Amino acid sequence: MAPVPSPVASASPMPTVAGDFGSKANITIPPGQPSGQFVVNTLSEGEGATVAKGDWVTINYTAKDWTSGKDVGSSYDANQKPQLFQAASGQLVPAFDQGVLGHKVGSRVLVVAPPAAGFGAKGNPTLGVNAGDTVVFVLDVMQAVPQDSTIAGAITEPPAGMPQVKDNGKAAPTITVPAGQAPPTDLQKAVLVKGDGKQVQAGQTVVVQYTGVLWSNGQQFDSSWSHGGAQALQVGTGSLIKGWDQGLVGQTVGSRVLLVVPPALGYQSQSQAAVPPNSTLVFVIDILEAV
């Protein structure tokens, strides 16, 4: 594949865009051929945080094939949803991956993507993009979550008998398991910080910070803080342990949730890395985004 060109601020001729941030864009292709440049222009600038490399970015998009003049698709269409990805990590085509860098949340951005910044020499037959086509994208930057994000807000103490949690800012919280107390046999959950964001739905991808310890000895066995920060995980589909699916679906973005997961809803009789068989697990989970 050809090297990805660096994006430039402008080129001629340029598509025009009608519509406002937060709605499907109407893209008009000008006469003539595209310049072959990878173009990123700000149509309207937001007032939110600036997207940096590694941030978990949520965008809505509208796309049109410059070469054929056909609409490629839009996340604003029925049964579609925004894209969630890490900026400049290579997860998506460079038009998305690099097109959001340096732009503020709330911005609408026009991207003209030649094949090297779009779908490459092979195109994307599923979307109707032929080999060598230039594609025009309008990106609405909806949210950006840095990898060191955490939940802020007044903390509600867990109920008596549940583990206690000490906030450590931009580090894993300290979780203290009640001494000499038998673990519960059912899922226990407590909302330590109640977020005012949207409700998490089954099938969504959530961006979370989390820390897990064993009830048996209080030892930490996993934490997002120890391997790169905030992680994106799909909930409610069986890809996670049942305790997470049952404990997170229905919570709201911006919440910090304490879960005590019995073995039947965790790893059951199987060992998992540092988790012995039949372990009761304790998690503190910050829900940072849901798409």
Automatic annotation (TrEMBL):
Superkingdom of origin organism: Bacteria
Enzyme class name: isomerase
UniProt-recorded name of the protein: Peptidyl-prolyl cis-trans isomerase
Organism in which the protein naturally occurs: Kitasatospora cystarginea
Alphabetized InterPro entries for the sequence: PPIase_dom_sf, PPIase_FKBP_dom
Assigned protein family: Belongs to the FKBP-type PPIase family.
Catalysed reactions listed for this entry: [protein]-peptidylproline (omega=180) = [protein]-peptidylproline (omega=0)
Entry keyword Membrane: no
PROSITE patterns assigned: FKBP_PPIASE
GO molecular function per UniProt: isomerase activity
EC number per UniProt: 5.2.1.8
Pfam family, one: FKBP_C
Domain (PPIase FKBP-type): residue spans on this chain: 54-145, 203-291
Annotated keywords: Isomerase, Rotamase
